Amino acid sequence: MKKLIGLLLVVCMFACRGGQTGKEATAGDTLKLDYAEHLQIVKHDGYTVVKLSDPWNMGKTLHTYVLVPSDHSDAPQLPQGEWGQVSVVRVPLKRSVVATSVHCGLLQSMGCQQAIAGVCDVRYINLPYVQQGVKAGTIADCGSGLQPTLESIIDLSPDAIFLSPFQNSGGYGRIEELDIPIVETADYMETSALGRAEWIRFYGMLFGAEQQADSIFHQVEQSYKDLCAKAKTSGTRPTLLMDKLTGPVWYVPGGQSTVGKVIADANIAYPWADDDHSGSLPLPFETILEKAGQADLWLFRHNAKQELHTEELVQDHAGYRQFKAFQSGELYGCSTETSTFYEDTPFHPDLLLRDFICIAHPDLGLGSPKYFLKVTPGGAATQQ
Fold first, then answer.
1. Which candidate, 61, 20, 31, 67, places its Cα nearest to that of 46?
2. Cα gap 244→313, rounded to integer Å
3. Which of 136, 78, 77, 128 is nearest to 104 (CA)?
């Protein structure tokens, strides 16, 4: 660390904020993270440094954040280069633009929803307080998450913008020209469900809810571990197929994705368990049928306003009839249009794990699933 400090550029990170003089960075205490692989948090006297590693370029840093209490007048100088882009964030955040339903749900779980000044892709956010806020004008509709409306963001004067990074995306366009920190929500690239959930500790620091976030994470962690142990006691291990065709392509979770890991933790066999991708795999129908046609269970997500039934499925693609799970009636649908699946499960993976166990291991007596409803032949879906 001392060697790095010796390489500091004599540039004040707060020069654009009134010409205040930055203080020299000091040695700090690294916060122990048990699961997150792309997150490093070091607490210093009067500020916290958070490094996000680049999930697409091993050994590189995606972004570094210096969290400084809003009542402090200065911030430390940090070395450039290996620290990636460096942003100073005044905490706690009071007015933020949030581009994803996932993080709107997260803020609600921490009791920080009042800090949302604007959202993107509002039609995909199944949270009443967001929908009501947009209608009432207390929360601004900032357009698409991929191309937010610049004028709306300027009018809001937010203290941070939460955007999802993507590989080879080319950046965030003109938004990067604004003097507003962009918080890159790369949590979705973690390779374990608890790894992604642990990012709640970082988000809690941003909104002045660190203790609440830590408490939520530890509750989720314990619940997840208890469910894992429960799943192992089942005498069965069925095979599972996920999702369905989207146009000509069938996207299935990679073996190293968070969903792939949850399937394994639920004591369920998965045809792509040995795959090393942490994202989704785009595959043709024929490959899916060959590899997973004999799967015992079929769970899929869809965006219809109501649950699908078997007749509607085969209208989309007659080939669905060839799957064992379709023939035996062991298929379950989750409407992401009407449920809070995406708002809940990324940071509460124990809820998804419970659904999988309920369906795959009814012998364990956990009751009915919350998100995936059994699809009935020729009728609306009903809970088990």
1. 67
2. 9
3. 128
